[in-house]
Automatic annotation (TrEMBL):
Record family assignment: Belongs to the cytidine and deoxycytidylate deaminase family.
Protein name: cytidine deaminase
Catalyzed reaction equations: cytidine + H2O + H(+) = uridine + NH4(+)
PANTHER family, A to Z: CYTIDINE DEAMINASE
A cellular component term, taken from the record's GO annotations: cytosol
GO terms (BP aspect): nucleobase-containing small molecule metabolic process; pyrimidine-containing compound metabolic process
Length: 199
């Protein structure tokens, strides 16, 4: 029997505002080497959005339209694309923790390339530093035309640290997306419970 995927429904207005906040947070990315900015935003259960770039808080209310499972279309969003010279892709990220403030994150590069940090990990680390460790979903968007953007292996392992049954939304610029659980993206994984087996 197929296991039910963890794909929490998102209110349409929440999703639109989160994606806009992600693009704003992306402006803070430090990426002089790859010129590949990434932004992130997180949403609270009670509808508050916090974006590091905007340094503001919004309380969302309104439509109860929901987005469900599968490969579906995201709502058409109206925004001006920021100009980044020589940039081949724009990537944004949103992450939804249980009962916590919305955190934003961006990629941070270093001249010693392995020391750079992806937006997914920046957002998760910010949430952890504020005491939040339970997540419902994370979503990533980019300008890749022919495939859905997906997290790198290191980000998948960091996500796995906080559970295997939460949703990863991978999108295309046309608004379509696929949803997978962390378990599906990182099968046969190693996690904190494995360390507890060693006594």
């Amino acid at each position: 029997m197929a296991q039910e995927r963890c794909t929490p429904a998102l209110e349409l207005e929440h999703l639109q505002r989160l994606l806009l906040s992600c693009r704003e947070a992306k402006k803070s990315a430090y990426c002089p080497y790859s010129r590949f900015p990434v932004g992130a935003a997180l949403l609270t259960r009670d509808g508050r959005i916090f974006s590091g770039e905007l340094r503001r808080e919004e309380k969302l209310t309104g439509k109860k339209e929901l987005l469900g499972k599968g490969s579906e279309s995201l709502p058409a969003l109206e925004w001006d694309k920021p100009f980044t010279q020589h940039m081949q892709q724009e990537v944004v990220l949103l992450e939804i923790p249980l009962g916590s403030p919305l955190f934003s994150g961006c990629n941070i590069e270093n001249a010693c390339y392995p020391l750079g940090v992806c937006a997914e990990r920046t957002a998760i680390q910010k949430a952890i530093s504020e005491g939040y460790k339970e997540f419902r979903a994370i979503a990533i968007a980019s300008d890749l035309q022919d495939d859905f953007i997906s997290p790198c292996g290191a980000c998948r392992q960091v996500m796995r640290e906080f559970g295997t049954n939460w949703a990863v939304y991978m999108t295309k610029p046309d608004g379509t997306y696929v949803v997978r659980t962390v378990q599906e993206l990182l099968p046969s994984s190693f996690g904190p419970e494995d360390l507890q087996k060693i006594q």
